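Structure ticket #2291
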Amino acid sequence: MNYRAVILVALTLSACSRGDQDNIIVGTLERDRLELVAEANEPIVEVTVREGDQVAAGAPLLKLNDEAIQARVSQASAQVNVAERRLAELVKGPRSQEITEARAAVDSAVSAEQTAHSEFKRADDLIKRGLVSQSELDLARTRRDSSIAQRKQANARLNLLLEGTRREELEQAEAELKRAQAALAEIRTSATRYSVVAPRAGVIEALPFKLGERPPTGSPVIVMLASDTPYARVYVPEVRRAQFAAGTQVRVNVDGVDRAFTGVARFVSAQAQFTPYYALTQDDRSRLSYLAEIDLPEADAAALPAGIPVQVALVQP
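Resolution: structure written out below.
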């Protein structure tokens, strides 16, 4: 092979290498990262998992001290009980004994009024004859007026019992019961959050706090990675953006794995950004790129660890 032929072969190989490199998009293998937070500033009283444990959805992971919230639950339950009894009392209406007692009170008030009225007439006659002072008459008048007021009050109470419970009172009692029940439901929901459970199947990645520590409210107490379909997070160069769309099929090579995986693009950002340093080739440093996420639905991909580099290429038709 002469000198000119050697140069031609070298240029051809270089062009092929450059074409293959341009078709490759690099990134990392990822899984959904879940941060489960503390709902209250209470000590951790139980931790049932360790870092690296595989857990199923709904599995208990950690528990905070719930003595304070349980006291609030008991208080709210008592308020519901009071509201229920009050409503039942109004629905049932007055008892026959109460009506009998009210009738007796009216009779007693009428008798007292008659007595007071007679005493007032007697005092009025005596003062006209000059046998008693004016103060005696005033005292008798006061007793008469007081007895009239007591008789009216007894009559009003009897009429109220005979009419039964007003509709407005029932509506108020029903509203109060609903308010108490809603408050109880809210507190019970808050109480369940003191026990942290796995929202999805996954692997425990980190336990930021230890048994006995008091994490601040809202701080992560469990960090886990979901164990369902992994995905590749890559940055698509601008020149390749038109070839990527949701549903696009690609070939994914994972470092350390001999075989390639079939991937399906599930998301491509519409917002361009600068390509991260680890996803750049020498010729790509000045280009914009678009974040994309590519699912790896094959069963074998479920065992792949997160964070390892991947290379993605379009599947040639």
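Closing remark: Residues 86 and 173 are 7 Å apart (CA to CA).
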